[in-house]
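Each letter names a residue; the fold follows as tokens. Both lines appear below:
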Amino acid sequence: MSVYAVILLHENGLPIYKKFARGRERPVEPLIAAILGLSQETGLGDIAHARFEKASIIVLRGAREKKLILSLFVRVANHLNYLRGIYLMNKLEKAIDEVGDIITDDLITSAERVIETYFDKLKKIPDVIGDVFMRAAEKFGPMFYGSIMIILFRRFNEDPLITLMRNPKLFIKELDKILGPESTNQFLMYMFHEFCGLHKEICERMGVKDIRRLVKRIIKKIRKERKEEVIRAFRNIIENIIDEFLEKS
């Protein structure tokens, strides 16, 4: 499995719960706390991920509980592992009532229950975003997928779908600049059509009846709502889709 460990911390650097896939546990909390402290001291914002010789680390902040920091030690910091991290973080936020300045027994117990329940399921999560993105891009022409990925990579300086995972509002904004709003709308429409074509049963169970109306509503929300609201809504959609996948498997 490409996820070696998950560590949940308070934003002050104190550990809440950690889980390793295999092998000897390592005291990684000081490393993560140092990285978080460096990002705060420099005023550069939250760190997205860091790469080491043998592994990478992905860092996610809670969308509702900003004091929660989830770190994943992974083989590579790609969009699929971000997808796995977002799914786990959303589960944690829904299970944890409130995060104060003190780490309580209830907080630890809730975190342990969620992480122990879902850790082994992370490897079963498929690349639902990358697959439908590629299929939608191919509808614009045989060379479009490679071209748009190169352009977006230059804009974001990373895998474009990582940006989509972390900040869907920024991703759509840049796509608007490249394609124009109407073509962006069409592109996202293709993505949803491809997903429901591949996973008709999941769309039916999620109550997706009118794809066009649904996509228009989602795009309007992304463009109009605040960044934080968009991220919360996006993570909920991701969680629901993955839940359906895991239930099928």
Remarks:
- The beta strands are 3-10, 15-20, 49-51, 56-61, 68-74.
- The chain is about 60% helix and 10% strand.
